[in-house]
Amino acid sequence: MIGRLTGKVIAHEADGSIVLDVGGVGYELAAPIGTLGRARPDDTGRVTLFVHTHVREDALALFGFADEGERLAFRALLGVSNVGPKIAVAVLGALPAAELARAIARKDLSALTSVSGIGKKIAERLLLELRDKLPLAPVHVTVPVGTGPAAPRTAGDDEERLRTTLTGMGFRPAEADRVVATIGDRIHAAPLPELLREALALLAK
């Protein structure tokens, strides 16, 4: 399965579809409208898109997102009854992940029904089934810079930090606990960004 692609955009359609040239191979991805505007190109003009590989009996489709938060929101939408990839892409094209999370938190039915293809019944289902599953803001991993000595850390601090980050991204506490237990003692030695990448890979299995 493809999880991420980095390359140059060689085609971009009005519906958000993208063709990304990666090493001479063109990958066609369906993407929410506005994805390229949210993605950050590097110095050579290449962009990195987080990819969801959708497999059906008769087709294999790739969906591209500007960041991990957008992909997590897409996967959360797919978990809602009667919501398929086409509707999920339409929702995120109108309401990027952070806006969608705020609409769910506010129980803003009108914001959801304003999306093409979303009627009242589906909107009500989204409010019910996505409650507490989407973070209100993207999770940014930062390293604080201080002028004084840092407070001593305990083993429990490392575990709780990773657990809190994962639940803030929308994962269930039981899933976060399982990943923390699987990573084991490495949680006290590796930096949080590395642990987070490992945790997301474990949760994707």
SSE order and pairing:
Elements: E1 4-12, E2 18-22, E3 25-29, H1 35-38, E4 47-55, E5 60-65, H2 68-78, H3 85-94, H4 97-106, H5 109-113, H6 120-129, H7 155-168, H8 173-183, H9 192-203
Antiparallel strand pairs: 1-2, 1-4, 2-3, 4-5
Helix pairs in contact: 2-3, 7-8, 7-9, 8-9
Q: Major β-sheet, in short?
A: 5 strands, antiparallel
**Mean pLDDT level:** 82
The helix/strand class is alpha+beta
CATH topology of the largest domain: OB fold (Dihydrolipoamide Acetyltransferase, E2P)
Query: Ranges with pLDDT <50 over ≥5 residues?
Result: 138-155
Second CATH tier, the architecture of the largest domain: Beta Barrel
The end-to-end span amounts to 11 Å
Structural domain count: 3
Going by CATH, the homologous superfamily of the largest domain would be: Nucleic acid-binding proteins
* Total helical elements: 9
Helix content: 40-55%
Judging from the principal axes of the Cα atoms, what is the shape? globular
The top level CATH class name of the largest domain = Mainly Beta
Radius of gyration: 19 Å
The portion of residues forming beta strands comes to 15-25%
Strand order of the largest sheet: 3-2-1-4-5
Instruction: Give the H and E element order.
Output: EEEHEEHHHHHHHH
Total E-strand runs? 5
Task: Describe the structure concisely for a colleague.
The chain has 9 helices and 5 strands; from the N terminus they run E-E-E-H-E-E-H-H-H-H-H-H-H-H.
